[in-house]
Amino acid sequence: MAAGFTREQVAAIAALAHLELDAAELDLFARQLGDILTAAEEVQRVDTTGVPPTASVLTRHASDRPDEVRPCLDRDEALANAPDAALDAGLFKVPRVIG
Amino acid sequence: MTIATTIREIRDAVRARHRSAADVCREALDRIAALNPQLNAFNTVIADRAIARAEALDRDRDRWRDAPLLGVPVALKDNLCTRGVRTTASSHMLDTFVPPYSATVVEKLDAAGAVIVGKTNLDEFAMGSSTENSAFGPTRNPWALDRIPGGTSGGSAAAVAADLTPLALGSDTGGSIRQPGALCGVVGLKPTYGRVSRYGLIAHASSLDQIGPLARTAHDAALALSIIAGPDPADATSAPEPVPDYTAALTGDVRNARIGIPRRLLEQGVDPEVSRAIDAALDVLRSRGATLVDVELPHAKYAIPVYYLVATAEASSNLARYDGVRYGYRAPTPKDQGLTTKDQGLRTMYGKTRAQGFGPEVKRRIMLGTYVLSAGYYDAYYLKAQQVRTLILRDYDEAFSDVDAVDAIAMPTSPTPAFPIGERVSDPLQMYLADVFTVSANLVGLPAISVPCGFTAGRLPIGLQLTGRRFDEATLLRLADAYERDTEWSKQLPPIASR
User: Fold this and answer.
1) Is B120 on the interface with A (CB under 8 A)?
2) What are the pLDDT digits (tens) for B142-169?
3) Given B323, B370, B385, which is nearest A16 (Cβ)?
4) pTM exceeding the 0.95 threshold for the entire prediction
5) Which residue in A has a C-alpha nearest to residue B95's C-alpha?
6) What distance in Å separates the CA atoms of residue B99 and residue B408, rounded to the nearest whole number?
7) Which residue from A45, B98, B366, B431 has the fewest beta carbons nearer than 10 Å?
8) How many CB atoms are located within 10 Å of the residue B267 CB?
9) In order of start, what are the domains of chain B with their CATH numbers?
10) Distance (Å) from the C-alpha of residue A91 to the closest C-alpha of chain B?
11) How is chain B split among helix, strand and coil, in percent rounded to 5?
């Protein structure tokens, strides 16, 4: 797979990422993603038998805290950056989804 | 060659009332106004706000007398949230975003008496190695305007190098503080993962990101770290370890220090001028009494591909939040498109918003990260990379804990000096190699510093990188400071900045 991607494969990944790509981008990424993953093949040849994965390098959990209600962002402030909001109702607005 | 002003000099002058904070601030703003058109180091300059803040400090100077950054102008990478001040991550996606809160590091700088003057340019969402991937155009290297300043904290590094501010904060996911520090000739420190709260840092790769200072000297970096470090209830990954006064570690005494050199790792791909400068720098430390020993990091050669599998996976997840709903750019969608499927309008909006809001490198990484996390490929790529990450971690653990353990590991920060703008933009793999010596420290979470150690024949800065034990930034700063005592590199300013 790492040898190269078809346009269709790139389009399928783009759909997972909610990213619209034009034809030129599909071709470019088909080539570049293939190149990058080919360069990563040496990683796949490393013997990792019995080696656990590292997702985080934290040596200990830092901070549990009481689950208490505390002040948070004011509703108007939370909505202030929205591209489209119903400020009176306290809602973010999106294109019609239902019906 | 002019000697630039340090944090300590400014702070002491304001504290002693030799200068007002407002005068210091106006001078910094004047220099920014004069040089930023050429450098493009700043995305946003908050002149009025900065002067008002400096005047407030001056009016109430008795209360602020002991503030460790009293009146010191500071620049912030534009991926650190600042309440009421536009924060863009150099992305069209966020070019009008005004955060309703400030990052913890910003609150700490404010409490320390600093004067924030503006937000600096970066590679979009901190993805890149050159600050060319910015929606606002590339930043230029103060030492050579046709070259890149490094990245992704290129604006912060250029601002300090050109003496616009004595301190800037950056963020480092794979070298983004150290590499621009090296290429611009300033000190750059990536603290231990967890040392500094990431609250309010726009996330790139959450297991790798860390905030740190860019400054002219190790002393200034130590002073800054003492202020921004520490646990934070708002970041569950911030570490509870107590924060020492890092400046107290700067004794000049490195006689007991053992410095490891991974010679085999450095055999290939290092520019000869860089190699010579690193060898000469290590000789300086040896002449001060440090012991140089060889170390093996057999898996460090896999760091770049491991990094690009892990970082892009995390980035694709983190950047899912940019959907045009709660903040940021939304692509215009006509109310009536004659769409038939129920959710087509929303999905179309997502796809177009992300297509128009993100630049090419961000899209490339989202694609790569989405792929390596997708069903059928997760084990082969992402899980495998995390396993090799464990092997790299064990290499470093061994070097730092063996019977003949070292206190620091020395490498070049960057294999080459600053390259010309445009040279690598069309070749992502070439660009990724700029980080070959820096990404390991992020993968293993260890602190690392870049300290200026010379110039090429063409007057391009070179940086020495020292990686240390977990939470032992003090040793790195002591070594860097001791090195500075015997050299003059950190006192040099680029011609563009000479006063």
Assistant:
1) no
2) 999 999 999 999 999 999 999 999 999 9
3) B370
4) yes
5) A81
6) 39
7) A45
8) 8
9) 7-261+406-497 (3.90.1300.10)
10) 10
11) 40, 15, 45
